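Exercise 7.
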Amino acid sequence: MLPQLGDEIFLTDGGMETWLTFDAGFELPQFASFPLLDDPRGVAALRAYFAPYVDLGRKRGVGLVLDAPTWRASAHWGELLGYGAAELDSFNRRAVAFVEDVRAEAEDVPIVIGGCVGPCGDAYRPAEQLTVDETFAYHRPQIATFSQTAADFVNALTLTYAAEAIGIARAAQEAEMPVAISFTVETDGQLPSGQPLSEAIEEVDGATDRAVAYFMVNCAHPTHFEHVLAGDGAWRNRIMGVRANASAKSHAELDESDELDAGDPQELASHYPLLRERLPNLRVAGGCCGTDDRHIAAICDVLVR
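Solution. The predicted structure, written as tokens, is:
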């Protein structure tokens, strides 16, 4: 039983990579944050990134779900960055240990550590869809590494099609780790693959015998998917987390932008009560691209009384 699936809201952090790029001034080749663990300045920046969220959790008396900076720490992206399997294994272990240190230094704040998994392809423009067996084989090494660390669960973010979610869920099952699956959607509320969100969740549940602990939506503004949550369907009960973008721009627009669109923290937070109304099991709330601790504090204000 994951702590964030109890009765209380757990907050997440915001957009790690966008903060590191636009606020901390780091260049992130392939949008990967894990190489910063080899740079003392990078480690200091990661500490500075997590600090206000821990402070928020302490002041508001809420728990946190914090992910290791491993969204790109898998084979395809590692190869593009010049890292082999052994180096990626080391990065994944060190990344979880880093967040473990953050948790150890904040004994008064409940913190759940996510072993963060990202898609093997581009999260905005997936050029190719792999089979379930191919995605299982691809994600298996990273998830096997997480099973040997302090990571409490596998947190798979910005997935764009159901087959990859199924492959990740099966790899987590093999490693005997809980897994959360988060899909991203386009401005029409459908996955980049064109599949409706409802069908993707039902397909994953059907193929894995509901092995996924919970589903989320991330890397999209609430206006992109609020409407698809308005209908009936038991699948909505499986969505227990939302990590929204600060900007209402499309993925294509964000991909081409040289400037950060941080939106308005209050405006973003104003959508979360409606999301909670349409998602009766909403337990995990936070942000994604363009968000920082200001957005998460505003979300906390509207969800946690």
